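Figure caption, in words: inputs first, then the predicted bound structure.
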Amino acid sequence: MTTGQSHIGDLTIRGRRGSGDFPPTPPDSEHSDCEKKSSQDLENVDFALPPKSSPPTQVLEQDRKTPDSWLPRDSRLIRLTGVHPFNVEAPLSDLYNEGFLTSPELFYVRNHGPVPQVRDEDIPDWEFTVEGLVERPITIKLKELMSEYEQITCPVTLVCAGNRRKEQNVVRKTKGFSWGAAGVSNALWTGVAMGEVLKRAGLKRGAKYICMEGADKLPNGYYGTSVKLNWALDPNRGMMLAYKQNGEMLRPDHGKPLRCIIPGQIGGRSVKWLKRLIVTAAPSDNWYHIYDNRVLPTTVSPEESANNQAWWMDERYAIYDLSTNSATAYPAHEEQLCLVGAPETYKVQGYAYGGGGRRVTRVEITLDKGKTWKLANIDYPEDKYRDAGPVMLYGGKLDMEWRESSFSWCFWNLNIAVDELKDASDILVRAMDESMNVQPRDMYWSVLGMMNNPWFRVTIAKEG
Ligand code: MTE
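Bound structure (MTE present):
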């Protein structure tokens, strides 16, 4: 696997102020520490920088007759819901081969409807509001967000709650479409801590939730959802309003020009094309908050869920923190290993992630359906960024030293004797996080098919 490891020469270091360019450079005073570090310690920083990105230039045939007919896309992406809306994942080995950071063109996409079209020249004046239970409701232009607040950069993995849903649909059809195991991607996001924006508006007594709403008008209104206000105010939870992905301004499918990034939680909370932040006393009443991103009890059938609203109105079934999960990238689907002249060992490898900022602390593999386990090696590329900080990266301060949470996926591998693989019928993997949340053996089926995380299985077929 390539790690996308690169040298520091690619870093953007901003030491000047008021150069008149866009995006604006952040104020000096807030960055003096990391500028010192940037100039002194650059040679010692060895975190991965994004793989070379090639923004697609061609509108694909499939998109020509859809509302997204203006939008060039990468043809390697696998469409999971026909042509429109655009819901795609990369082939798992392509995603994995990119390493720690996923290029925007291979980053999974989950769109509920048409992509809002925003011209480059309109980006600086893109506005969003901060309203509801605040002392001073405000409207903020993107150029103000970029110049008046501290800018930060942080690697965060996003995961669709439907990642791995295909396995559930095979057992019993859910209401959701079939994601493979590539409904997950990781990027460096640059923007402003959401808590800073909320603090500037001032919070009123009784404020408990932060609702977010996008610009995409859908059959049931604008896409929107909410999370707890406490989380938005806790810097350790890393919630951001982001406008750059891997150092580039956001691409249309990923929220151009502004989106929320809610680390450690299901991707559905990271609202794209952000237009409104609304502070409330109760969770969002947006249709998509109520009828999406929930794990109803397994006893609730599709018919029962359609007939009885009460299941949906119960906020206890809303999902926030991701569940611990892992998948195997190699052996890849239909990979063949020829025993004649094969090396003695085969390197089984893949990714794992935890939820709520909890770190994956072990990954285990079994070749005998769980009777015995082998401990895999784990690589945490995120730690290189933690060790490097504070430095300026893409105009934002990368400063993770103090942060205990883990927001990015990790990679695991284990060399297994080919002789052992020969005798096995499958390879199963499970991960555990620092709170000992371990992937279960059995699937928890639910009507929307979300948070699927049983042991990931690769079967071994033998020929000849
Ligand atoms: N925000 C808006 N406005 N509209 C959407 O359809 N989809 C959500 C979330 N934010 C969505 C949205 C879901 S379900 C996911 S998983 C993530 O965006 C996907 O982000 P990505 O497409 O950039 O990977």
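The radius of gyration is 22 Å.
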